[in-house]
Amino acid sequence: MANVSLKIEDHVAHVTLMRGEKMNALSFELVEELIAAGESLMERGDVRAVVLSGEGKAFCAGMDVANFATLAGQDPWARIMPRSHGNANLFQQVGLIWHKLPVPVIAALQGVAYGGGFQIALGADVRIAAPGTKLSIMEIKWGLIPDMGGMALLPHLARSDVIRRMTYTGDPVEAEQAERWGLVTEIAEDPLAAAREMAAQIAGKSPSAIRAAKALIGYAEAHSGDADAVLLEESRAQAALIGQPDQMEVIAANLQKRAPVFRG
After folding, report:
1. How far apart are CA 142 and CA 136, in angstroms?
2. Across-strand partners of 107?
């Protein structure tokens, strides 16, 4: 892939946007390659965490402006309405694929995360940003609304008034404010190093428990108004872990004061 790098080391997948000279602006090719990278990890049992980053001075500046002319010459209904990726279209899948992955995704942000780039970051489980990183729901600048999965993800992270302010104005907010609003998890001088360190830590935990935890959190978010269903799913997920090989290895490792060694 020319626009996306995918490397797997020590059970961590490193996915990097590689259009640094263009601030990783989303060309059609980059969108398709990024989705392909994410989807290639769906069935990878050896992958335990993902680090998502952008090369150069920016995470992602949003949609490449060259795309707007192409889109303007097409039937928008035919381009946008088909559900080509389950419940999503192509542009929504580029952000949602990271949310759909069964393992944790940590996004490392620097420079800017604008428009589609911000929505891709929202698909991650954790967002670590460099000081001063700017984030924006920028679609209103082009007379549009956020349409890359952001509205399926934002309400789980931020208050309604925050979402409305950012959507209506398009104003960038710095990472420090975004952290206070729940859109950034933490600030780090070197977000990529911090993301890699966190991914390595996660990769050392029980793989089956980590996958079960991500699935349970997603279930709890989707059924937040049904405590009975969440409690039942919590018990079901726990029962499926107890006494299984990963859990028994964790117990043995703790008793022997060593790092656990998992299969796969």
Report:
1. 13
2. 52, 127
Question: Per-residue pLDDT for the chain (264 aa), expressed as one digit of tens each?
Answer: 899 999 999 999 999 999 999 999 999 999 999 999 999 999 999 999 999 999 999 999 999 877 766 666 678 888 889 999 999 999 999 999 999 999 999 999 999 999 999 999 999 999 999 999 999 999 999 899 999 999 999 999 999 999 999 999 999 999 999 999 999 999 999 999 999 999 999 999 999 999 999 999 999 999 999 999 999 999 999 999 999 999 999 999 999 999 999 987
Q: Is there a domain that residue 46 lies in?
A: yes
Q: Which amino acid is at 253?
A: A
Determine the angle formed by the axes of helices 207-222 and 227-241, rounding to 10 degrees: 170
- Asked if residues 97 and 33 have their Cβ atoms less than 8 Å apart, the reply is no
Residue 262 lies in a domain: no
CA dist 173 and 135 (Å) reads: 5
Cα 119–Cα 123–Cα 125 angle in degrees, nearest 5 = 135
- Domain limits at 246? 206-256
State whether 9 and 64 are in the same domain: yes
Residue 238 in any domain: the answer is: yes
* Alpha carbon 184 to its chain's center: 12
Does this model's pTM top 0.85?
Answer: yes
Which of 156, 178, 202 is the last residue before a domain boundary? 202
Q: Residue 27 domain-assigned?
A: yes
The C-alpha atoms of residue 46 and residue 172 are separated, in whole angstroms, by 38
Residue 7 φ/ψ, nearest 5 degrees: -130, 140
Shared domain check, 223 and 143: no
Q: Which region holds residue 243: left if phi is over 0, alpha if psi is between -120 and 50, else beta?
A: left
